[in-house]
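# step 3/5: fold
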Amino acid sequence: MASLICSSTFCQRGIRRVLLCHTHLSRGFVACQNNRDVEPFHLAAGRIHTTSAHSRCSLTSLYRMSCIKPQTIAAAQKTYFTEVHGLPNISPLVRSVEETPEPIPTTVKGTIPSWIHGSLLRNGPGKFEFGNQHYNHWFDGMALMHRFQIVDGHVTYRSRFLRSDSYKQNSERNRIMVSEFGTLALADPCKNFFQRFLSRFEMIKPTDNASVNFVKYKGDYYVSTETNYIHRVDPDTLESKQKVDWSKFIAVNGATAHPHFDPDGTAYNMGNSYRNKGAFYNIIRVPPERDGPEDTLEGAKILCSIAPRDKSKPSYYHSFGMSENYVVFIEQPIKMDLFKIVTGRLRGKSLNEGVFWDPNQETTFHLIDKHTGKEMPVKYHAKALSTFHQINAFEQDGFLMLDMCCSDDGQAINNFLIQNLRQSGEALDEMYNTMSRPLPRRFVLPLNITSETPLEQNLNTRPDSTATAVCRTKNQVFCTFEDLHGEDLKDYGGLEFPHINYARYNTKPYRYYYGCGFRHLVGDSLIKMDLESKKFKVWQQPDLYPSEPVFIPSPNAEEEDDGVILSVIITPVKDKSTFLLVLDAKTFEELGRAEVPVNIPYGFHGVFNSSA
């Protein structure tokens, strides 16, 4: 989850003013704006405080701000829901499994191209309970890393749990010791009554359970979630090498698990911080090369800081867009109620209960110049939407095209409770049918807005584009989207987990994207979309659930889709029947599969590490 304020002082007289702390919602640390160190919270005399002074913020004022009702936006909603019945039970896809720390062979059927040399690295939750205590949310499970090594048409598999502090503490006590996004760690039963009572006033302990993705900084691989902790790992053995704290290098309290990269390896990311003037979203830049063998995030800088629309309810974001010259931050109306989050432990509530969808707020697109670090004065607005993943962004003829998977409803993040994923029958159908489907869309943002730009007329002059961009004022443009699909995509539940030929076409005009169809709570098909025709190809088989597709270009590729698609396929109906699927990216026909005699839970994201 993205960053938030933690500020609370409790005493016999009630709630008092306290120091404003810049912290991430799932950790008990404060990033200092005046230096790069991180200070832990302390509990002394019934008071939570830090060891440095910043501007003051009243918890009561946070409460008052949390009660302010947003203005209603008079915008027609085009929400797309489904009416599906008879969904199969998928509960085995979210069950705990054992790790496979040593490589094991697979059984290859068909042909895996001999030119593929490297490893598909995947990340996701793999353990959902300790002792008799169970996690509540899909995002809470302990990180399990996977490696499918491909050499000369043969494949081996191994997996390993990330040895995070959270994992080690939970394992040592055989209970949940560290709170996660949807699970509040209970007070230690070994403590006496007074100690357990005081623990309700402590800030939530930090988690370093990096279960979302593999990311690369300065040539090293890390596993990441959305907190201030990432772990450097050995991409061959999957062993945890080093725990790295973002806030030791720059004043942020976390970063997304979806950085973007320039061709030279320069990385861009986003993270939140809290300063004497309130909350900020920050654009981060990490240099491409190390200065020494032990170098991690040294040299990282904050490129730009953006003030939220509402300081008491900043937006949640999972990723962002990037074109050749701009970083695009999407401030969406999935909000974090800081008052509820700050008081969560006192109220016995987990962090996810402070996250909510506000359909009365517009979505705002912020453009930041990558070269100067300046935020562009023009703001682009759209009706309320939610997005987790962008497809691509590129500039052409004075416009910035922003392509992303988005929904008209943002409540999905709190629907992925493990109990929901384990439902069956009518209850499962009802859960699925109440969730808005994610669909690929394009916004066209005009870049050359001046005082002479006419108001109240469509500025999008691109041929065959149905998106609109209308200047409300000299610094405000209201946009509507165009669909990047035909109506028949809805028969497959929309599309998420998008992927492109990133190395050659990220930030550039492109023709193809790939993703998972979602006619279930998890992906149940693989899709290749042609942007020119809006037609698509599908790989789908009964009771098989594919992971995010990863595109691998073939050697000396000339066309955009010359290559293969890799996806990990799992099933809830047959034990130990996982396989790595290899599709021809051009024809979308199966080339081969490597069967693995293990169970793998449904995961999140991954990358291909080429060894060629």
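# step 4/5: annotate
The first strand starts at residue 3 and ends at 6.
# step 5/5: archive (pending)
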